[in-house]
Amino acid sequence: MEKAARRKMPRFLLDYLVGGLGEELCVNRNRQALRDTILVPRYLTDQDRPDLSQVVLGQRFDAPFGMAPLGLAGLLWPGSELPMAKAARKHNILHVLSTYSNQPIEAIRPVAQENGWFQFYPPNDPAMEVDLVDRARQAGYEVLVVTVDIPAPTRRERDIRNGLTAPPSFDLSTLVQIMARPGWALGTLRHGIPDFGNLSPYYPNGASMAQSAEFLSQVMEGHISPKRFEAIRAAWPGKILVKGVLDPLEAEAYVALGADGVIVSNHGGRQFDAAPAAADALPVIRKHLGPEATILADGGIRSGLDILRMLALGADFVLLGRPFLYACAALGAAGPDHAVKILKAELQACMAQLGAGSVKSLGQFLHWKA
Questions:
Q1: CA quadruple 274, 279, 284, 290: dihedral positive or negative?
Q2: Torsions phi, psi for 255 (to 5 deg)
Q3: What are 54-76's pLDDT values in tens digits?
Q4: Cα(327)–Cα(229) distance, rounded to whole angstroms?
Q5: R_g of the chain, CA atoms, integer Å
Q6: Is 306's pLDDT higher than 80?
Q7: pLDDT given for residue 221 in this prediction
Q8: How far apart are CA 227 and CA 232, in angstroms?
Q9: End-to-end CA separation in angstroms for the chain
Protein backbone atom coordinates (compact mmCIF):
# COMPACT_ATOMS: atom_id res chain seq x y z
CA MET A 1 0.00 0.00 0.00
CA GLU A 2 2.89 2.38 0.65
CA LYS A 3 4.26 1.66 -2.81
CA ALA A 4 0.86 2.35 -4.33
CA ALA A 5 0.54 5.58 -2.33
CA ARG A 6 3.89 6.78 -3.64
CA ARG A 7 2.58 6.34 -7.19
CA LYS A 8 -0.68 8.19 -6.50
CA MET A 9 0.17 11.13 -4.22
CA PRO A 10 1.68 14.43 -5.42
CA ARG A 11 5.30 14.57 -4.35
CA PHE A 12 4.92 17.62 -2.10
CA LEU A 13 2.26 15.78 -0.06
CA LEU A 14 4.12 12.48 -0.05
CA ASP A 15 7.18 14.30 1.29
CA TYR A 16 5.06 15.78 4.08
CA LEU A 17 3.70 12.35 4.99
CA VAL A 18 6.87 10.26 4.93
CA GLY A 19 9.44 12.85 5.96
CA GLY A 20 10.94 14.03 9.20
CA LEU A 21 13.38 16.89 9.59
CA GLY A 22 17.11 17.39 9.53
CA GLU A 23 18.77 14.16 8.45
CA GLU A 24 15.55 12.29 9.32
CA LEU A 25 17.49 10.25 11.87
CA CYS A 26 14.58 10.11 14.30
CA VAL A 27 12.23 8.69 11.66
CA ASN A 28 14.75 5.96 10.95
CA ARG A 29 15.52 5.49 14.65
CA ASN A 30 11.88 4.65 15.31
CA ARG A 31 11.95 1.91 12.69
CA GLN A 32 15.33 0.53 13.72
CA ALA A 33 14.41 0.31 17.42
CA LEU A 34 11.42 -1.84 16.52
CA ARG A 35 13.50 -4.03 14.22
CA ASP A 36 15.95 -4.55 17.07
CA THR A 37 13.21 -5.73 19.47
CA ILE A 38 13.51 -9.53 19.57
CA LEU A 39 10.86 -11.85 21.03
CA VAL A 40 11.32 -15.50 22.02
CA PRO A 41 8.54 -17.95 21.04
CA ARG A 42 7.38 -20.64 23.47
CA TYR A 43 5.75 -23.70 21.93
CA LEU A 44 4.83 -25.76 25.01
CA THR A 45 1.43 -24.13 25.37
CA ASP A 46 -2.25 -24.53 24.55
CA GLN A 47 -2.72 -20.87 23.52
CA ASP A 48 -3.96 -21.49 19.99
CA ARG A 49 -6.47 -18.62 19.70
CA PRO A 50 -4.97 -15.46 21.19
CA ASP A 51 -7.32 -12.85 22.58
CA LEU A 52 -6.61 -9.52 20.87
CA SER A 53 -8.99 -7.47 22.99
CA GLN A 54 -7.73 -4.78 25.31
CA VAL A 55 -9.29 -2.42 27.86
CA VAL A 56 -8.00 1.17 28.00
CA LEU A 57 -9.42 3.78 30.37
CA GLY A 58 -12.32 1.45 31.08
CA GLN A 59 -13.21 0.98 27.39
CA ARG A 60 -12.95 -2.41 25.69
CA PHE A 61 -11.54 -2.56 22.15
CA ASP A 62 -11.44 -5.66 19.92
CA ALA A 63 -7.77 -5.09 19.09
CA PRO A 64 -4.95 -3.28 20.94
CA PHE A 65 -4.23 -0.73 18.22
CA GLY A 66 -5.89 2.27 16.65
CA MET A 67 -5.53 5.26 14.37
CA ALA A 68 -3.20 8.01 15.51
CA PRO A 69 -4.22 11.65 14.96
CA LEU A 70 -3.41 12.66 11.40
CA GLY A 71 -3.26 16.35 10.61
CA LEU A 72 -4.03 17.31 6.99
CA ALA A 73 -5.40 13.81 6.31
CA GLY A 74 -8.10 15.14 3.99
CA LEU A 75 -5.46 16.98 1.97
CA LEU A 76 -3.01 14.10 1.86
CA TRP A 77 -5.73 11.92 0.39
CA PRO A 78 -9.11 13.47 -0.46
CA GLY A 79 -12.04 12.19 1.56
CA SER A 80 -9.88 9.95 3.76
CA GLU A 81 -11.06 11.07 7.20
CA LEU A 82 -14.60 9.68 7.26
CA PRO A 83 -13.60 6.19 5.99
CA MET A 84 -10.98 5.97 8.73
CA ALA A 85 -13.54 6.82 11.39
CA LYS A 86 -16.00 4.33 9.88
CA ALA A 87 -13.40 1.54 9.85
CA ALA A 88 -12.51 2.21 13.49
CA ARG A 89 -16.15 1.96 14.48
CA LYS A 90 -16.74 -1.17 12.38
CA HIS A 91 -13.78 -3.04 13.89
CA ASN A 92 -14.17 -1.59 17.40
CA ILE A 93 -10.71 -0.07 17.45
CA LEU A 94 -9.64 3.43 18.44
CA HIS A 95 -9.80 6.54 16.25
CA VAL A 96 -8.06 9.73 17.45
CA LEU A 97 -9.07 12.89 15.59
CA SER A 98 -6.44 15.60 15.14
CA THR A 99 -7.04 19.26 15.94
CA TYR A 100 -5.56 19.80 12.46
CA SER A 101 -8.08 17.50 10.78
CA ASN A 102 -9.86 18.78 7.71
CA GLN A 103 -13.24 17.46 8.81
CA PRO A 104 -14.45 19.15 12.01
CA ILE A 105 -15.09 17.55 15.37
CA GLU A 106 -18.83 17.77 14.81
CA ALA A 107 -18.66 15.72 11.58
CA ILE A 108 -16.34 12.93 12.77
CA ARG A 109 -17.71 12.17 16.23
CA PRO A 110 -21.11 10.86 14.98
CA VAL A 111 -19.21 8.45 12.70
CA ALA A 112 -16.57 7.22 15.17
CA GLN A 113 -19.02 7.41 18.12
CA GLU A 114 -17.53 6.01 21.34
CA ASN A 115 -14.51 4.72 19.39
CA GLY A 116 -13.38 8.32 18.90
CA TRP A 117 -11.03 10.40 21.04
CA PHE A 118 -10.01 14.00 20.32
CA GLN A 119 -6.38 15.03 20.08
CA PHE A 120 -5.99 18.59 21.32
CA TYR A 121 -3.25 21.07 20.48
CA PRO A 122 -3.81 23.78 23.11
CA PRO A 123 -3.74 27.21 21.43
CA ASN A 124 -2.20 30.13 23.31
CA ASP A 125 -5.42 32.11 22.89
CA PRO A 126 -7.44 31.46 26.09
CA ALA A 127 -10.85 32.04 24.48
CA MET A 128 -10.01 29.76 21.57
CA GLU A 129 -8.74 27.09 23.96
CA VAL A 130 -11.90 27.17 26.04
CA ASP A 131 -14.11 27.04 22.95
CA LEU A 132 -12.27 24.08 21.38
CA VAL A 133 -12.49 22.10 24.60
CA ASP A 134 -16.17 22.93 24.90
CA ARG A 135 -16.82 21.90 21.29
CA ALA A 136 -15.17 18.53 21.93
CA ARG A 137 -17.29 18.04 25.03
CA GLN A 138 -20.51 19.02 23.28
CA ALA A 139 -19.71 16.70 20.37
CA GLY A 140 -19.61 13.82 22.82
CA TYR A 141 -15.91 13.07 23.14
CA GLU A 142 -14.97 11.52 26.48
CA VAL A 143 -11.18 11.34 26.14
CA LEU A 144 -8.95 14.35 25.39
CA VAL A 145 -5.44 13.65 24.08
CA VAL A 146 -3.41 16.74 24.93
CA THR A 147 -0.38 16.90 22.63
CA VAL A 148 2.56 18.80 24.08
CA ASP A 149 5.41 18.26 21.62
CA ILE A 150 4.92 21.14 19.13
CA PRO A 151 6.02 24.18 21.16
CA ALA A 152 7.51 25.95 18.13
CA PRO A 153 7.52 25.68 14.34
CA THR A 154 9.99 23.17 12.95
CA ARG A 155 12.16 23.39 9.87
CA ARG A 156 11.20 20.35 7.83
CA GLU A 157 13.50 20.57 4.84
CA ARG A 158 11.19 18.69 2.48
CA ASP A 159 8.31 21.07 3.20
CA ILE A 160 10.56 24.13 2.89
CA ARG A 161 11.80 22.90 -0.47
CA ASN A 162 8.25 22.19 -1.64
CA GLY A 163 6.82 25.44 -0.27
CA LEU A 164 4.16 23.56 1.68
CA THR A 165 2.16 25.78 4.02
CA ALA A 166 -0.83 25.27 6.29
CA PRO A 167 -3.40 26.00 4.96
CA PRO A 168 -1.89 24.86 1.64
CA SER A 169 -1.11 27.14 -1.27
CA PHE A 170 -0.36 26.00 -4.80
CA ASP A 171 2.32 27.30 -7.13
CA LEU A 172 3.37 26.19 -10.59
CA SER A 173 5.53 23.34 -9.27
CA THR A 174 2.78 21.87 -7.11
CA LEU A 175 0.22 22.27 -9.91
CA VAL A 176 2.49 20.27 -12.25
CA GLN A 177 2.76 17.56 -9.60
CA ILE A 178 -1.02 17.53 -9.18
CA MET A 179 -1.54 17.16 -12.94
CA ALA A 180 0.67 14.06 -12.81
CA ARG A 181 -1.61 12.53 -10.14
CA PRO A 182 -5.10 12.62 -11.69
CA GLY A 183 -6.66 10.40 -9.02
CA TRP A 184 -5.72 12.82 -6.27
CA ALA A 185 -6.78 15.80 -8.41
CA LEU A 186 -10.21 14.33 -9.22
CA GLY A 187 -10.72 13.42 -5.58
CA THR A 188 -9.93 16.97 -4.52
CA LEU A 189 -12.35 18.35 -7.10
CA ARG A 190 -15.03 16.04 -5.74
CA HIS A 191 -14.40 16.79 -2.05
CA GLY A 192 -13.19 20.38 -2.40
CA ILE A 193 -9.89 21.96 -1.36
CA PRO A 194 -9.74 21.19 2.37
CA ASP A 195 -9.27 23.62 5.20
CA PHE A 196 -8.85 22.99 8.92
CA GLY A 197 -12.41 22.27 9.97
CA ASN A 198 -11.66 22.65 13.68
CA LEU A 199 -9.62 25.83 13.38
CA SER A 200 -11.08 27.80 10.49
CA PRO A 201 -13.89 29.28 12.63
CA TYR A 202 -11.21 31.22 14.50
CA TYR A 203 -9.46 32.79 11.48
CA PRO A 204 -9.52 36.61 11.45
CA ASN A 205 -12.43 37.95 9.43
CA GLY A 206 -11.57 38.29 5.77
CA ALA A 207 -8.15 36.69 6.20
CA SER A 208 -6.39 35.45 3.08
CA MET A 209 -4.87 31.99 2.92
CA ALA A 210 -1.45 33.42 3.78
CA GLN A 211 -2.89 35.43 6.68
CA SER A 212 -4.69 32.33 7.98
CA ALA A 213 -1.43 30.40 7.86
CA GLU A 214 0.35 33.15 9.78
CA PHE A 215 -2.46 33.22 12.35
CA LEU A 216 -2.17 29.48 12.99
CA SER A 217 1.62 29.63 13.29
CA GLN A 218 1.30 32.28 15.99
CA VAL A 219 -1.65 30.93 17.96
CA MET A 220 -0.31 27.36 18.18
CA GLU A 221 3.12 28.27 19.59
CA GLY A 222 4.32 27.83 23.16
CA HIS A 223 5.07 25.20 25.76
CA ILE A 224 2.28 23.80 27.92
CA SER A 225 3.20 24.97 31.39
CA PRO A 226 1.99 23.16 34.52
CA LYS A 227 -0.48 26.01 35.08
CA ARG A 228 -1.91 25.70 31.57
CA PHE A 229 -2.20 21.95 31.88
CA GLU A 230 -3.98 22.25 35.23
CA ALA A 231 -6.46 24.67 33.62
CA ILE A 232 -7.19 22.18 30.83
CA ARG A 233 -7.57 19.41 33.37
CA ALA A 234 -10.03 21.51 35.38
CA ALA A 235 -12.07 22.36 32.27
CA TRP A 236 -12.32 18.82 30.89
CA PRO A 237 -14.82 16.48 32.59
CA GLY A 238 -13.54 13.27 31.02
CA LYS A 239 -10.25 11.42 30.81
CA ILE A 240 -7.02 13.09 29.68
CA LEU A 241 -3.94 11.52 28.12
CA VAL A 242 -0.76 13.48 27.39
CA LYS A 243 0.85 12.73 24.02
CA GLY A 244 4.47 13.46 23.21
CA VAL A 245 6.10 12.19 26.41
CA LEU A 246 9.63 10.74 26.23
CA ASP A 247 11.04 11.41 29.71
CA PRO A 248 10.00 9.22 32.68
CA LEU A 249 10.12 12.08 35.20
CA GLU A 250 7.94 14.23 32.96
CA ALA A 251 5.49 11.34 32.57
CA GLU A 252 5.30 11.14 36.36
CA ALA A 253 4.76 14.90 36.60
CA TYR A 254 1.83 14.84 34.17
CA VAL A 255 0.17 12.07 36.16
CA ALA A 256 0.67 14.10 39.34
CA LEU A 257 -1.02 17.06 37.61
CA GLY A 258 -4.09 14.96 36.85
CA ALA A 259 -3.39 13.10 33.62
CA ASP A 260 -4.99 9.66 33.38
CA GLY A 261 -2.06 8.35 31.37
CA VAL A 262 0.54 9.20 28.73
CA ILE A 263 1.27 8.44 25.10
CA VAL A 264 4.96 7.79 24.49
CA SER A 265 5.71 9.49 21.19
CA ASN A 266 8.27 11.58 19.33
CA HIS A 267 5.65 12.79 16.83
CA GLY A 268 6.70 10.25 14.24
CA GLY A 269 10.23 11.62 14.25
CA ARG A 270 8.95 14.93 12.87
CA GLN A 271 9.78 17.41 15.64
CA PHE A 272 13.33 16.86 16.93
CA ASP A 273 15.87 14.76 15.06
CA ALA A 274 17.91 13.86 18.15
CA ALA A 275 14.92 12.53 20.12
CA PRO A 276 14.99 8.92 21.33
CA ALA A 277 12.97 6.28 19.54
CA ALA A 278 9.57 5.73 21.10
CA ALA A 279 10.36 2.01 21.44
CA ASP A 280 13.48 2.88 23.47
CA ALA A 281 11.71 5.36 25.75
CA LEU A 282 8.67 3.16 26.34
CA PRO A 283 10.14 0.47 28.65
CA VAL A 284 11.91 3.10 30.74
CA ILE A 285 8.67 5.01 31.26
CA ARG A 286 6.77 1.79 32.00
CA LYS A 287 9.31 0.79 34.64
CA HIS A 288 9.13 4.26 36.21
CA LEU A 289 5.33 4.57 36.30
CA GLY A 290 4.65 0.94 37.20
CA PRO A 291 2.40 -1.79 35.84
CA GLU A 292 -0.92 -0.10 36.60
CA ALA A 293 -0.26 3.14 34.69
CA THR A 294 -2.06 3.71 31.38
CA ILE A 295 0.58 4.01 28.67
CA LEU A 296 0.02 4.16 24.91
CA ALA A 297 2.73 4.49 22.27
CA ASP A 298 3.28 5.32 18.61
CA GLY A 299 6.23 5.81 16.30
CA GLY A 300 7.43 3.75 13.35
CA ILE A 301 4.81 1.00 13.54
CA ARG A 302 4.09 -0.57 10.16
CA SER A 303 2.82 -4.12 10.81
CA GLY A 304 1.15 -6.51 13.19
CA LEU A 305 4.58 -7.64 14.32
CA ASP A 306 5.53 -4.05 15.15
CA ILE A 307 2.32 -3.71 17.19
CA LEU A 308 3.31 -6.89 19.04
CA ARG A 309 6.78 -5.52 19.73
CA MET A 310 5.48 -2.24 21.14
CA LEU A 311 3.00 -4.06 23.38
CA ALA A 312 5.77 -6.34 24.65
CA LEU A 313 7.90 -3.29 25.45
CA GLY A 314 5.22 -1.99 27.79
CA ALA A 315 2.42 -0.28 25.87
CA ASP A 316 -1.19 -0.95 26.79
CA PHE A 317 -2.24 0.19 23.34
CA VAL A 318 -0.54 1.18 20.08
CA LEU A 319 -1.34 3.93 17.56
CA LEU A 320 -0.48 3.97 13.85
CA GLY A 321 -0.57 7.00 11.57
CA ARG A 322 1.18 6.79 8.21
CA PRO A 323 -0.04 3.24 7.34
CA PHE A 324 -3.67 4.35 7.30
CA LEU A 325 -2.91 7.22 4.92
CA TYR A 326 -1.04 4.80 2.65
CA ALA A 327 -4.14 2.60 2.71
CA CYS A 328 -6.42 5.49 1.75
CA ALA A 329 -4.18 6.50 -1.14
CA ALA A 330 -3.82 2.91 -2.33
CA LEU A 331 -7.46 1.81 -2.11
CA GLY A 332 -9.57 4.89 -1.51
CA ALA A 333 -12.47 4.58 0.91
CA ALA A 334 -11.91 0.82 1.22
CA GLY A 335 -8.31 1.32 2.39
CA PRO A 336 -8.74 1.79 6.15
CA ASP A 337 -10.98 -1.27 6.48
CA HIS A 338 -8.48 -3.36 4.52
CA ALA A 339 -5.55 -2.10 6.59
CA VAL A 340 -7.29 -2.98 9.86
CA LYS A 341 -8.00 -6.51 8.58
CA ILE A 342 -4.34 -6.99 7.61
CA LEU A 343 -3.03 -5.68 10.94
CA LYS A 344 -5.44 -7.85 12.96
CA ALA A 345 -4.55 -10.95 10.94
CA GLU A 346 -0.81 -10.29 11.32
CA LEU A 347 -1.11 -9.65 15.04
CA GLN A 348 -3.23 -12.79 15.53
CA ALA A 349 -0.70 -14.91 13.63
CA CYS A 350 2.30 -13.43 15.46
CA MET A 351 0.74 -13.93 18.90
CA ALA A 352 -0.15 -17.54 18.05
CA GLN A 353 3.39 -18.19 16.82
CA LEU A 354 4.78 -16.61 19.97
CA GLY A 355 2.53 -18.70 22.23
CA ALA A 356 0.87 -15.64 23.78
CA GLY A 357 -2.73 -15.97 24.94
CA SER A 358 -3.43 -12.29 25.61
CA VAL A 359 -2.05 -8.81 25.13
CA LYS A 360 -1.10 -8.49 28.79
CA SER A 361 1.18 -11.53 28.61
CA LEU A 362 3.45 -10.20 25.89
CA GLY A 363 6.15 -8.69 28.11
CA GLN A 364 7.34 -12.12 29.20
CA PHE A 365 8.39 -12.97 25.62
CA LEU A 366 11.01 -10.25 25.31
CA HIS A 367 14.46 -11.60 24.47
CA TRP A 368 16.52 -12.07 27.61
CA LYS A 369 19.15 -9.65 26.31
CA ALA A 370 16.60 -6.87 25.79
A1: positive
A2: -60, -40
A3: 999 999 999 999 999 999 999 99
A4: 35
A5: 20
A6: yes
A7: 86
A8: 9
A9: 31
pLDDT of residue 351: 96
Question: Reduced to 3 states, what is the DSSP secondary structure of residue 51?
Answer: strand
Q: CA 174, CA 24: separation in Å to the nearest integer?
A: 23
Which H, E and C letters describe 304-359, residue by residue? HHHHHHHHHCCCCEEEECHHHHHHHHHHHHHHHHHHHHHHHHHHHHHHHHHCCCEH
Q: Do the Cβ atoms of 240 and 142 come closer than 8 Å?
A: no
What is the DSSP code (8-state) at residue 68?
P
Closest C-alpha to 16, from 62, 70, 64: 70
By DSSP bridging, strand 54-56 and strand 59-61 are antiparallel
Peptide bond into 151 cis (omega under 30): no
The Cα 88–Cα 92 span in angstroms is 6
Residue type present at position 2? E
Residue 60 forms beta bridges with which residues?
Answer: 55
Catalytic residue among 91, 267, 288, 338: 267
* Choice between 156 and 30, residue whose per-residue pLDDT is larger: 30
CB 26 within 8 A of CB 272: yes
Report the C-alpha gap between 117 and 229 in whole angstroms: 18
CA distance 209 to 116: 30
Asked if residue 34 lies in contact with residue 300, where contact means CB atoms within 8 angstroms, the answer is yes
CA angle (316, 73, 178) in 5-degree steps: 145
- Asked whether residue 146 carries a pLDDT value surpassing 90, the answer given is yes
The single-letter code of the amino acid at 272 is: F
Q: What is the mean pLDDT of residues 230-259?
A: 97
Chain CA centroid to CA 245, Å: 13
**Is 267 marked active-site?**
yes
DSSP 140: T
Residue 63 DSSP symbol: S
CA distance linking residue 326 with residue 323, whole number of Å: 5
Cα 356 to chain centroid distance, Å, stands at 27
- What contacts 159, CB < 8 A, 6 or more positions away? 12, 15, 16, 19
Cα gap 277→246, rounded to integer Å: 9
